[in-house]
């Protein structure tokens, strides 16, 4: 969260029954003090982000996406995350988290979920309301061999303006439907 000036911000997750893990612990909402550089304070403790993990991942159509060599994961993610609106620090955090899951596979099927899918799965209520909200959610499945799939066209993210909120995450696809 990047407010234009230090601000108290309330974040409420719309489907808390889907939360399996959170940090700091989510109890009906988080109320944090956010600084323009993204630093957060919650219950007198510093955080660089709020974390939640969900169960029963959203249903994502597997009709399009990308097939990426595991060894090309860094280059692919750097390029696509820039299009989707993450700055270098956010992309760095994303890649550090997901690289071990992607790089060791010969290939990966990757698809980025639409904002509509994300909003349906876990609506966000943020007060004050952000001027710019960017949500990046990647679904992936490791593959032994490449497959043919229609390439996903990524919509560039909105331009960062005013109070900006970024959310990123992902899920492993536990289905054979992409074959």
Radius of gyration: 17 Å
What does the largest sheet look like? Answer: 5 strands, antiparallel
Low-confidence stretches: none
Strand fraction band?
35-45%
The averaged pLDDT comes out at 94
| Strand order of the biggest β-sheet | 5-4-3-1-9
Percent range for helical residues?
Answer: 10-25%
List SSEs in N-to-C order.
EEEEEEEHHEHEEEE
Number of helices: 3
Structural class of the helices, strands and pairings? Answer: alpha+beta
Net shape: globular
Distance between the termini: 38 Å
Number of strands: 12
Task: Please provide a written account of the structure.
Helix 1 runs antiparallel to helix 2 (88-102). The chain is of the alpha+beta class and 179 residues long. It is globular and about 50 Å long. Helices cover 19% and strands 37% of the residues. The protein has three helices and twelve strands. Strands 5-4-3-1-9 form a five-stranded antiparallel beta sheet, with no helix packed on it. The chain has a five-stranded mixed beta sheet with strand order 11-7-8-10-12, with helices on one face. The model has no long low-confidence stretch (mean pLDDT 94). The chain has helices at 73-84, 88-102, 115-121, and strands at 7-13, 19-23, 30-34, 40-42, 45-47, 51-54, 64-69, 107-112, 124-127, 132-143, 150-151, 164-172. The protein starts with 6 loop residues before the first strand and ends in a 7-residue tail after the last strand.
Keywords:
179 residues; alpha+beta; 5-stranded antiparallel β-sheet; 5-stranded mixed β-sheet; 3 helices; 19% helix; globular
Topology:
Blueprint: E1 7-13, E2 19-23, E3 30-34, E4 40-42, E5 45-47, E6 51-54, E7 64-69, H1 73-84, H2 88-102, E8 107-112, H3 115-121, E9 124-127, E10 132-143, E11 150-151, E12 164-172
Parallel strand pairs: 7-11, 10-12
Antiparallel strand pairs: 1-3, 1-9, 2-6, 3-4, 4-5, 7-8, 8-10
């Amino acid at each position: 969260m990047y407010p234009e000036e230090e601000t108290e911000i309330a974040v409420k997750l719309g489907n808390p029954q889907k939360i399996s893990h959170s940090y700091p612990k989510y109890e009906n909402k988080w109320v944090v003090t956010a600084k323009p550089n993204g630093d957060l304070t919650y219950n007198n403790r510093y955080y660089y982000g709020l974390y939640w993990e969900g169960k029963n991942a959203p249903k994502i159509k597997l009709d399009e996406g990308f097939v990426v060599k595991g060894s090309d994961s860094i280059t692919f993610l750097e390029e696509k995350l820039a299009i989707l609106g993450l700055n270098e620090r956010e992309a760095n955090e994303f890649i550090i988290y997901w690289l071990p899951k992607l790089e060791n596979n010969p290939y990966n099927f990757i698809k980025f979920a639409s904002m509509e899918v994300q909003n349906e799965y876990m609506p966000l209520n943020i007060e004050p309301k952000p001027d710019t909200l960017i949500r990046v959610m990647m679904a992936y499945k490791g593959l032994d061999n490449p497959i043919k799939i229609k390439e996903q066209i990524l919509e560039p993210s909105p331009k960062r303006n005013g109070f900006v909120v970024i959310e990123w995450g992902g899920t492993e696809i536990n289905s054979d439907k992409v074959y």
